[in-house]
Design a protein that fits this description.
mainly alpha, 24 helices
């Protein structure tokens, strides 16, 4: 009975005075109650309940789960030591001007020396304190595990070491990427699109966000849509080199609406495809903010709706210009210098839309040349409305053609006024050879009759028994077809499609 009472008293005492196990987080271990060894009997220990235990011992022990591995994996910190290290590192970052607020949930290095190494390494490649504050998460990347492998691969694919800092500024998220899992597949995809190896670095510098795209997502979809539109797959690579941003554009919300709107204006798909191949940046024109307002602006200045497709085919960049200001400036110039009214100016735009981007000092030179040859101002105005290309010609070439016209051909100025296109033909390649053959044959005809035709048609006319009626040049019609009154005017080849003829004849790309 006495024995039972003593056991009961001992049990109660253990409940009211439990054993306290020592926790040494600073050394990286905690001894749990269920696995604690027996109290040490060392007479030097004041409290017999304090345990004597060597952490991470390489010697065998009763508790192998607490043994230090033969390979050191790194410094293992306890919670308290981690907090102390974080405070020290944050104080260091603040001392050099970096705001560490966004690093609260980020795993920081164990020592201040490691963080200093990261900061100094990134500064060596060209990053500044402002760049760190712009994207502080880059300080969570290990120099050896993340930064060096990524930068080494980027240099290998063509990013110059001197521009590495600029690249990281544009796309700092690349430092978190896996070279094998994320970067290599994107580079292989670009090479598969026929982007030249030497152009990879150039493409990435223009649009580094490509490295973060999924291959089976937007990039593949946009390429497939353009190919279905008629873009030659071999031209996708040059398009990417010129304007890689279309790889990140959604087909349904950006590319397709623009294409459908241009088709509704009368542009054939084949012409659109050729435009995109040569001017890929057109795909990036904003439909609502840029394209539609510019089309409405052209109409407001008197351009006929049925001529819009021809204008865009000749000068696709017109869709992305600050058009209202340019048109107002040029309309005032034509009215002031040449007395060309707004309706005549609209006809000039229809025939040569590039005129809106020509400098006024450039246009004045051929105008002054024509006026100096004795042609009346009103006749010069008529010539320019009929053939606006005159204002973009070099005066030296015009002088040579005019001298031959007066001295060798001995024709009146009236013929030049009626056919100002004379100045647009090559003197040595077309005007002289054809005139000499006409002179040898004793044939007298208009300038248009022997100049505005192909070589084959000229031969037929030269040896024909009749003089056929002259016809005007090609005319673009709504719906995508090209009317060719006198197909000989357009080209020598018989097997060209109408769309290809339109593109080759009218689009100066």
């Amino acid at each position: 009975m006495i024995f039972l009472l003593r056991r009961k008293h001992a049990f109660k005492s253990s409940l009211t005075n439990p054993i306290h196990f020592v926790s040494n987080e600073s050394k990286g271990y905690i001894i749990p109650p269920l696995m604690s060894p027996k109290p040490s009997q060392n007479p030097q220990t004041n409290n017999p309940r304090v345990l004597s235990f060597k952490p991470f011992s390489t010697q065998s022990s009763k508790f192998p789960e607490y043994e230090m591995p033969t390979v050191t994996w790194g410094v293992v910190q306890g919670r308290k030591e981690k907090l102390v290290s974080r405070v020290i590192i944050c104080d260091y970052l603040k001392s050099i001007g970096i705001i560490p607020d966004e690093l609260e949930n980020l795993e920081l290095p164990s020592t201040i020396e490691v963080m200093r190494e990261r900061v100094e390494f990134l500064q060596k490649i060209g990053l500044t304190i402002d760049d760190f504050n712009e994207y502080p998460l880059m300080l969570g990347c290990s120099v050896r595990k993340n930064i060096i492998p990524v930068l080494g691969y980027l240099e290998k694919v063509g990013i110059q070491r001197s521009r590495m800092g600029e690249f990281v500024k544009k796309y700092p998220q690349v430092l978190h990427a896996s070279v094998v899992v994320e970067l290599v597949p994107v580079i292989r995809f670009l090479r598969g699109l026929d982007v030249e190896r030497q152009d990879i670095g150039y493409v990435l510098m223009k649009y580094p966000e490509l490295l973060g795209f999924k291959l089976e997502g937007t990039m593949s979809t946009s390429v497939a849509y353009l190919v279905s539109l008629g873009v030659n797959p071999r031209d996708i690579g040059p398009m990417v080199t010129q304007y890689p941003y279309f790889l990140g554009m959604r087909v349904g919300t950006m590319i397709k609406p623009l294409v459908e709107y241009l088709i509704s204006l009368g542009l054939p798909k084949k012409v659109l495809a050729r435009m995109f191949e040569k001017r890929a940046y057109i795909i990036g024109y904003d439909l609502e903010e840029m394209v539609k307002p510019n089309v409405d602006c052209l109409i407001s200045f008197g351009v006929q709706k049925e001529k819009l497709a021809s204008i865009i085919a000749q000068y696709p960049q017109i869709l992305g210009l600050p058009l209202k200001a340019k048109l107002s400036t040029q309309q005032y110039f034509f009215n002031l210098k040449l007395k060309i009214d707004p309706e005549g100016f609209a006809r000039v735009i229809e025939r040569m839309p590039q005129v809106i981007s020509l400098g006024q000092n450039v246009m004045m030179k051929p105008i002054e040349f024509l006026l100096g040859r004795g042609i009346l101002a009103q006749d010069v105005a008529k010539m320019i409305v009929r053939c606006p290309q005159l204002v973009g010609l070099q005066v030296g070439l015009m002088k040579n053609s005019f001298y031959f016209f007066k001295s060798e051909m001995e024709r009146p100025l009236k013929e030049l006024v009626e056919f100002p296109e004379y100045f647009t033909y090559g003197l040595e390649s077309r005007i002289k050879p054809r005139f000499m053959r006409l002179k040898h044959k004793g044939i007298r005809c208009s300038l248009s009759w022997f100049l505005n035709c192909s070589d084959q048609r000229f031969e037929e006319r030269l040896y024909g028994d009749y003089v056929e009626m002259e016809s005007e040049g090609p005319m673009f019609v709504m719906g995508g077809k090209l009317e060719l009154p006198g197909n000989e005017v357009v080209c020598d080849e018989e097997d060209e499609s109408d769309d290809e003829i339109l593109y080759r004849r009218m689009v100066s790309l």
